[in-house]
């Protein structure tokens, strides 16, 4: 039998085209290497079908030109790339597609389909030249042609549909081709009409052969095979069977068959689908091994890692994250954590979800112990093969200690600068006091000597206080509370500061509660805290000129559950903004005259006793500092 001549249009070398494979199958092949030459050759040859390589220059225009000359010509497009890309480019311009180099079974199936279409179309055309047979055969031939084309389209559409599903789930055509599902279409005479690629690969090319030829045992008969059972029962069936592969292997499968009805409600076709058990078991075992390796690597990473979906739900967390922050799988990330440093939805995770790009930045997360930790976050998008974002991988590295070190280094630099200035002023004052004493002795002026001694004592006290504050700030100290008479303690504080306050021409008004109370406190530390507040009040009064004499009140209040120490002055006061930061490190109300350490140390001492310190102040109306301590101070409290 002489086969159809084939026109091959491809600009690739001969051995890289479909021409050698066609020649090996005894087809007459005419090969041209350009679109223009191909159109001229087609016009003279008028072949029934043409092979076009997708690499030919302006291949789409070439196919359209061929169609203009003959609408019924069969066009086979070859590609060396991805099949789905070629299908997307040519769409309905071509009839068949194949990937080079072509496997012999697949090429044989494609050529046979094309030859049958050409044959049927020629039969239809011949009817128009035979008036006697037209009425008798035209309808049957047309129906047979359309029926064959419909069957082929069913399998192709099914393949395209499953391919799209696989693509949406991170894949593409390659996933469909790898799925162990065998899909085939049969007619009501139990003849195979079409099958997908994996069917042909494992079971051989059985086009137009009987439906039961692939089965063994009792299913290897017309009535016993799954297609025959569906035709008999006229319903969807589920059949257990033994399939014989082309390699000789026998595999148990579960076959699903369903009838396809014509317009009159009669069964016209049967679709058959089954999965290879061994392939499924192999894929399952491989999936388990891959999952185990993934889990081991995922949990071995020392950094905390989470995987979130596009709705910020935590899908997975490694061991380090669970140990540090708890197992919150299934919960929304921002219901558990807040972004911290960043404004709402400007954190790295939110930015990656919106942009689909990697980001990094600082965040603050609360760990299992309820402590806030500074973390550096790196986020990376997880996308499908088509570029669709489906998840976000977030890696967190704890940098809390690094941030503390940075803060401490910054504070150290600021403290050195502040202390250098303050020490320089104090040393200048000492020089002045010593000069006054020297000159007083030299000139025999006792008043000048006394003034110099007062200056030396003042500067010495200032240096002593500065050194004490530095020691409290620099070295962590535990408190050692012992039962103490609060009346006597407050009286001692008032007596020690009374001379200094009155010496500054400030009225001092101590009001010690007469209710006897004994409670555990660290008297030395608490005395320092009260001295700092009273010194601050003295400085505020000195720096605030007023026609009337300034006053400082020192009060104690006894409550059932707490003790209050109150220092109230009539100095210049401070703004609400300043009052909010007065206890912060290096925040001074004295301008360049203060270090900003004293009140910071005071707050730490009060906190160590389990108490609180607050200030109420307004510009021009003085300030009120209030320390409240619980009546029961438990044990030793540490930590800055």
Q: What would you say this structure looks like, in words?
A:
With 640 residues, the protein is α+β, with helices and mostly antiparallel strands. It is built from 19 helices and 23 strands. The relative contact order is 0.04. It is 45% helix and 23% strand. The strands form 5 sheets. The protein has a 6-stranded antiparallel beta sheet, sandwiched between helices. Strands 2-1-3-4-5 form a 5-stranded parallel beta sheet, with helices on both faces. It folds into 5 domains: 6-164, Response regulator (Rossmann fold); 180-282, 2-Layer Sandwich (Beta-Lactamase); 301-398, Beta-Lactamase, CATH 3.30.450.20; 403-473; 477-630, Histidine kinase-like ATPase, C-terminal domain (Heat Shock Protein 90, 2-Layer Sandwich).
Summarize the SSE layout with pairings:
Elements: E1 6-9, H1 19-24, E2 29-32, H2 35-45, E3 49-53, H3 59-69, E4 74-79, H4 83-90, E5 96-99, H5 104-128, H6 131-168, H7 173-178, E6 181-187, E7 192-195, H8 197-203, E8 215-216, H9 226-233, E9 237-244, E10 250-261, E11 267-275, H10 277-300, E12 304-309, E13 314-317, H11 319-325, H12 333-336, H13 348-355, E14 359-366, E15 372-383, E16 389-398, H14 400-443, H15 446-474, E17 482-485, H16 486-503, E18 507-511, E19 518-521, H17 523-542, E20 551-558, E21 562-569, H18 576-581, H19 598-608, E22 612-617, E23 623-630
Parallel strand pairs: 1-2, 1-3, 3-4, 4-5, 18-20
Antiparallel strand pairs: 6-7, 6-11, 8-9, 9-10, 10-11, 12-13, 12-16, 14-15, 15-16, 17-19, 20-21, 21-23, 22-23
């Amino acid at each position: 039998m002489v086969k159809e001549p084939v026109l091959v249009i491809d600009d690739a070398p001969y051995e890289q085209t479909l021409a050698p494979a066609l020649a090996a199958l005894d087809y007459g092949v005419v090969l041209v290497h350009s679109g223009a030459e191909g159109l001229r050759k087609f016009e003279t040859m008028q072949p029934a079908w043409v092979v076009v390589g997708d690499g030919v220059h302006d291949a789409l225009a070439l196919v359209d030109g061929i169609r203009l000359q003959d609408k019924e010509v069969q066009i086979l497009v070859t590609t060396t790339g991805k099949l789905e890309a070629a299908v997307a480019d040519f769409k309905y311009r071509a009839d068949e597609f194949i990937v080079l180099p072509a496997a012999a079974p697949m090429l044989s199936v494609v050529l046979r389909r094309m030859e049958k279409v050409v044959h049927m179309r020629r039969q239809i055309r011949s009817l128009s030249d035979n008036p006697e047979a037209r009425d008798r055969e035209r309808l049957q031939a047309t129906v047979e042609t359309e029926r064959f084309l419909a069957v082929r389209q069913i399998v192709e559409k099914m393949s395209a549909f499953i391919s799209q599903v696989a693509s949406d789930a991170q894949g593409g055509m390659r996933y469909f081709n790898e799925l162990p599902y065998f899909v085939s279409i049969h007619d009501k005479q139990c003849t195979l009409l079409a099958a997908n690629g994996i069917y042909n690969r494992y079971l051989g090319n059985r086009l137009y052969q009987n439906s039961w030829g692939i089965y063994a045992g009792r299913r290897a008969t017309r009535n016993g095979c799954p297609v025959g059972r569906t035709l008999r029962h006229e319903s969807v069936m589920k059949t257990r069977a033994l399939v014989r592969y082309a390699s000789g292997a026998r595999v148990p499968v579960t076959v699903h068959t369903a009838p396809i009805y014509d317009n009159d409600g009669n069964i016209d076709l049967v679709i058959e689908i089954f999965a290879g058990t061994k392939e499924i078991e192999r894929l399952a075992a491989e999936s388990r091994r891959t999952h185990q390796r993934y889990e081991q690597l995922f949990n071995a990473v020392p950094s905390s890692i989470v995987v979130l979906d596009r709705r910020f739900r935590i899908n997975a967390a490694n061991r380090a994250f669970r140990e540090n922050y708890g197992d919150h799988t299934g919960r929304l990330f921002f219901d558990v954590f807040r972004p911290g440093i960043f404004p709402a939805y400007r954190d790295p995770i939110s930015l990656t979800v919106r942009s689909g790009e990697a980001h990094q930045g600082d965040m603050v997360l609360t760990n299992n112990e309820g402590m806030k930790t500074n973390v550096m976050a790196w986020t990376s998008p997880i996308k499908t093969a088509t570029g669709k974002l489906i998840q976000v991988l977030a890696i967190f590295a704890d940098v809390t200690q690094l941030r503390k070190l940075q803060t401490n280094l910054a504070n150290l630099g600021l403290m050195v600068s502040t202390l250098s200035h303050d020490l320089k002023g104090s040393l200048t004052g000492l020089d002045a006091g010593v000069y006054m004493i020297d000159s007083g002795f030299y000139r025999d002026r006792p008043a000048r000597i006394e003034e110099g001694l007062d200056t030396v004592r003042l500067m010495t006290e200032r240096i002593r206080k500065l050194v004490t504050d530095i020691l409290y700030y620099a070295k962590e100290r535990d408190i050692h509370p012992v039962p103490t008479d609060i009346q006597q303690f407050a009286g001692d504080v008032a007596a020690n500061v009374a001379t200094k306050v009155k010496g500054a021409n400030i009225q001092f008004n101590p009001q010690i509660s007469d209710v006897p109370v004994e409670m555990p406190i660290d008297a030395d530390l608490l005395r320092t805290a009260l001295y700092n507040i009273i010194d601050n009040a003295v400085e505020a009064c000195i720096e605030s000129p007023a026609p009337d004499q300034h006053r400082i009140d020192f009060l104690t209040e006894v409550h059932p559950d707490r003790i209050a120490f109150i220092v109230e002055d009539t100095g210049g006061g401070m703004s609400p903004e300043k009052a909010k930061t007065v206890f912060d490190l290096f925040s001074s109300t004295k301008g360049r005259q203060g270090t900003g350490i004293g009140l910071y140390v005071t707050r730490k001492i009060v906190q160590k006793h389990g108490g609180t310190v607050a200030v109420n102040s307004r510009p021009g109306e003085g300030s009120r500092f209030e320390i409240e301590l619980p009546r029961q101070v438990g044990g030793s409290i540490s930590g800055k």
